[in-house]
Amino acid sequence: MMPKALSAHSNTSGPPAFMQNLRDIAEITPLLVVLLGLFGGAVVLGVLQSFGYAPWFGINEFPTTEYYERLWLSSDFWISLGLTLYYGFAATLIGLVVSVPLSIALSKKFKASRLFGTLIRLPLMVPYTVGIALALVMLGNGGLLSRISAGLGLIDDPSQFVQILKTHWGCGIIAVYVWKQVPFMTLTLSAVLARKGEDTVEAAMVLGASSRQIFWRVTLPQIMPGIVSASLICFAFNIGAFEAPLILGGGYPDTLPVLAWRYFQDANYAFQLQGMAVVVSLALVSGVFLGVYLLGYRRWERARGRV
Predict the structure, then answer these.
(1) For this UniProt entry, which segments traverse the membrane (predicted)?
(2) Which of 42, 73, 104, 172 could link 165 by a cystine bridge, Cβ 3.0 to 4.6 Å?
(3) Which regions in the chain score pLDDT beneath 70?
C-alpha cells in the first residue's frame, strides 16, 4: 500500500515557531553576554574615562570636555589624523588594485592553480609582526636590498640606499599592510566570483563583448559587494593598528593609535584619560568615514536597480 501524501498545509513534526525562537535566543545568549559585557562594557568605560571619569586613578571630573578640547585644538592631532587616514586609504586602495586581478586569476583553472592558491594564502599563516621584521630586513638601510644594490655597484655603500623606512611617506607601513591584507581581499573576492559562476561572463563573450567590457560591465559589478566588505574591514584595521607605524614610521608626529599607545604607556596614569580621548576620536572619525562609504555604496546599488 502506498503511504498517504502529506498535505501542503499540514503541520509538520517540528517544534512550534515560538519554541524555535526561544531556542535561537538561548543559543546566542552566551555570545550576546560576551559581546555586551566585555566589548560593550569596555566601550562605555572608555567613553566615561575620556570625559574625566576615573575614580580608580583618583580623578573624577565627569563630565568634562577638557581632554577633547586639548586634543582637537592641537595642530599635532590633525597632522596625526591625516597620517593615520593616509596610511589607511593608501594601503586599502593598493590592496584592492592588487587583489582584483589576483581573485580573477584564482577563480580560473590552470596547470599551477593549486600552487598559486597556496602562495596566495601563505601570508595569512605568517604572524603580522614577522611581516614587520621582514620589512626591516629587506627595506632598511643596511638591509638586503641596500646590500644587493651596493654589490651590483648601483651605490657605493649600503648607507646610501634610498630611505624607505622611518619616513612619513610610510612606504614600509603601507607595504606591510598590503602584504598582509591582499590574501584576505583576494580570497573574499574569489569566493564572490565562485558564487556568481561563469554564466554571465560566457553570455557576454557570446554576445561579442571584449575583455575590457566584460571586466567593467560584468565582473566588477559582480564582485562589488565583496570589494566593499573587504575594504571596510581592511581600512578599519589599517587605521587602528599601531605596531607597524610605531616600528616603521617616521616618528613625531605619530599616527593616532601610536599617540594613544604613548599616553597609555606614560607613568602618569592621568594621561590614560587623554589616551581614551584619542581612541574615542579615532573611533568617531572611522565611523563617519565608514558610514559615508556605505551610504555611497547603497546609492550606487539603488542607481543600478539592485535595491
Answers:
(1) 31-57, 77-106, 118-140, 160-179, 227-249, 269-296
(2) 172
(3) 1-15, 306-307
